[in-house]
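User: Please run a holo structure prediction.
Assistant: Happy to. Please share the sequence and the ligand.
User: Here you go; the ligand is zinc ion.
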Amino acid sequence: MTAQPALDRASAPPRDALSVLNHVFGLPGFRGAQEEIIRHVADGGNCLVLMPTGGGKSMCYQLPSLLRDGCGIVVSPLIALMRDQVAGLTEAGVNAAVLNSTLSYQEASEVERRLLAGDLDLLYVAPERLLTPRCLNLLGQAKIALFAIDEAHCVSQWGHDFRPEYIGLSALAERFPNVPRIALTATADAMTRKEIAERLQLVDAPEFVASFDRPNIRYEIVDKQNATTQLKNLIAERHPGDAGVVYCLSRAKVEDVAASLSDAGILALPYHAGLDASVRARNQDRFINEDGVVIVATIAFGMGIDKPDVRFVAHLDLPKSVEAYYQETGRAGRDGKPSTAWMAYGLSDIVQQRRMIDESTGSDAFKRVSIGKLDALVALAETVHCRRQRLLGYFGETQGSESCGNCDNCLTPPRIRDGKVLAQKLLSCVYRTGQRFGAMHLIDVLVGRLTERVKQFNHEQLSVFGIGRELNEKQWRAVLRQLVAMGHLRADSDAFGALKLTESARGVLKGETAVMLREQPEGARNRAIRGKSRRGELAQAADSKGAAANPTLHAALRAWRSEVARQRGVPAYVVLHDSTIDGIAAMRPDTLDDLRGIAGIGDKKLEHYGTELIRLVNRTEG
Ligand code: ADP
Ligand code: ZN
């Protein structure tokens, strides 16, 4: 990384929060509770901050570190994230550094020297490093502005990201009782929050809890036909050239899908635990640093990736739970620009996930909990109501009765129809064929197809043979999937996925239980979603205009950014965010003053790139 001139203290602007936000970060105003949090911490208070991914947590400790005397110490377990944040801060003229295992002895000594000399505003430290006697001693001799504990849910032994090193962080309160501690996380239920507060001794510390809504993310869950083809269409039609993450369950599928996307001319790279570590690291770096790379990955990918301009997250397989779905889709659109969370889902997904639970070695209690979590996600996939409301409702947040206007169900409400007779036909077919067959055969019988298998079992003689000719195979699949989701049918893992009736099926067969089915021809829906206005999105007007109004300038700015990023060895977004590029393309500033007004252009960026950007604008027509 190239060294940047230090923030010049002598000519530094007055140190109030808003002017630091304007001058250093180039941002016009605070978001949500940021201002309140920043004031609280700058005044020396402890607190716990809960914000969704992309909510703007970093600012809550970066800015107070600049306001207070001394250096802010940021504890983070994520090495890639530390590196990228330091690169971004350095670009903005902030004196920031990391202390972790990637540094040589000399490099680490230099960082220590700068800390003691009062030369650092922010220092990122891995928790295991922080807790060494050497490091604690070092901090004891330095002036510390605050401790920020990022990913604070890692202290929770009940959580999915427990890190034993985090437990030791309770030492901070004892060793540095007068230094404020701010704990931050994007995932914490009430129990975890309590645990964080106890472990970090955040006594009488306020909790700042932001809404978990991600309004710029459009949620879409579609019927799975040929998932890879559907994905290619999504990319071609709505996300050409965009960066995205595609999640698959198995390594083999990751390889297949990555190859298939590459064949279609999409820049796609695989990522899974079976790849050679160096290949994995290279693919991850390309995804972060280059423009518009699609990474196809197992869920091993994503933790600690701070890339703000991921435009879509696609699931080709069903995750395990709503929590996992929320966390994975949350990697889209951290920069607040319109983004897509898209999932293709079908009967086989439910069957597969159920089988994984049944075959796991967990206790019965664990399996029950897992099934409950899976059911909640399936219900989200099947709902005919607003997906956002359902998602937030799962996390205990109510959004009133307003529909969000930015999910597939809100944009093109599915038709609901009385499915009693269809359900009865299907359930009878399961019953008459002896509860020994999977979806394909059952549908063959219903539509009256004389296959070898049908003949082998004499199923053409049954009363149910051909009673379902009013629907085609695809429609029957949707009915079947919904009956499984409703719990009237169950896939038996012991019998190769044969479908069996459950207790509740009896009520349906007797006509006592109502069955409402959703219906949505997918092609029509995709067209409708594409055609919809952007209402309901929080996209800044300039966003889409930048590329649309001045496409040549937009492309030129992006090419310029790639080149600068390459020369400086930093990710493209560290040079300028997409929204800043869009802003410049839309506004075509021709003076430094006008350029200064665009979000993302702070003092240092103006100084470094201002003249060049203005020249680029003046040189480029359209
Ligand atoms: P988190 O850590 O909560 O996931 P970040 O701190 O990385 O989120 O912030 C997400 C994005 O929001 C970043 O691109 C950041 O520059 C931007 N951001 C943060 N605060 C503001 C603000 N007040 N105005 C505009 N953008 C902001
Ligand atoms: Zn909605």
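The pocket of adenosine-5'-diphosphate (ligand 1) is lined by residues 27, 30-31, 34, 51, 53-59, 308, 334-335, 577 (CB under 6 Å).
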